[in-house]
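Appendix C reproduces, verbatim, an entry submitted by the partner laboratory led by Prof. M.T., so that reviewers can inspect both the input and the predicted structure.
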Amino acid sequence: MTQPLRTLSIRLAYPSRGLAPNLRLLRHGKNSIHRFYSAAPSSPSTSAVVVGAGPGGITVVGNLLDQRAETDRRNLVWVDPHFRGGRVNERYREVPSNTKVNLFVQFAHELSPFKAIVEATPKPNALTALQELPQDQGCRLSYAADMCLMLTEGLAVHPQVQSHRGKVTKATLDEQTNVWKVEFDDGSSVTTSSIALCTGSGPVSRALPAIEKIHQQSLKPLDLDVALTPSVLTETFDPAADTTVAVVGASHSAILVLMNLVSLASSTHPRLRVKWFTRNELRYAQYMDGWILRDNTGLKGQAADWAHQNLDPEAFPNSPVSNVVTKVWTAGREEEAYKAEMPGCTHIVEAVGYAQNPLPQLEITERYGATATPLNVEYDSLSGRFYKKDGAKSEQQKQYVHGLFGAGIAFPERVTDPHGNVEHAVGFWKFMKFVKRVAPDWIKSSS
């Protein structure tokens, strides 16, 4: 089926809900699939602006369409520079998931707009590819990324979604009217009563303090995203050169990096060696009665299996991995350990977490025409809302910002397990459960 026919079939699959009256085309041309509109100036021009088109943004767009009132016929504006599935598609297609396949499939069937896309997309497609895999195991993230692309394509032609290819540079809240003015990098703007930030995260790039003190100019930084992508990693090193990579961390991503480096050393790069710097013992997710201990912080899937077989204290001495990897324990002696063991390393990769991508500039004004001032906010990871960062010391003192919300990896839900452990819930299905719970309150509070 050709692209125009596939787009038409997806459009026809949606329930018939009229568009808002008094629409005015702002940009992109009448023949573009990717357009956005502004309603009459007397009211907010769009029901919501969703910033970001990775898994978090896809989740929010789907939920806002699924849960909005039948009488609300305004469009929502969806903003992203690429509309290509976010970082999971751009950087992590070769990474094994720690989510079971059946949860990706459930994600695609959870909302009525998603179901319409699934039903209208010719088979075989990204979802049928997932359905053919073992459902109780993980998979390469390329399968999940392709599902994101399929859902993105379908949401982009939904009659109440207008996608804007670009970036949000500034958002200013008029406290008198509770209306946001959202400005884009091409100089255009819309007004809305609701903004959802799904802006994503990336690997922490700044060196740990103990490493920064002894950082040698000859020690080349190895980007974590490169280290997680075997097809790119193999081109990074000279197979004939003596290479020693320092890997810092014991997280899921650190173990995947070790897996990739050991694979290289055991095949095309026999002169590659690794020094693994860690201050934590390996922690595994543990399946309990109806819940998972260390669900968001413990090792799962291929990373857990490989670590059990090769890195656990009883396994490591007899594993062939010990011929490639030297473990350096740093707890309580980080600076000393780095000074002693870092010399001789040629590269370093720090797998020590992720940090939020930069947000658009947020401002607030007391009334139309008044001078805008910076709006400093904190995220409430139970409600998905933001409150003013003005020294609120209790729940009662929090001043929530009207119509400002967050979701996805940059703004996940805080969860507490039955043992009292607090974690942040990251993953496709976890984003879905969170947004599905809080979206009705978002819609109500911003109306």
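The first strand starts at residue 24 and ends at 27. Additional entries are available on request from the coordinating office.
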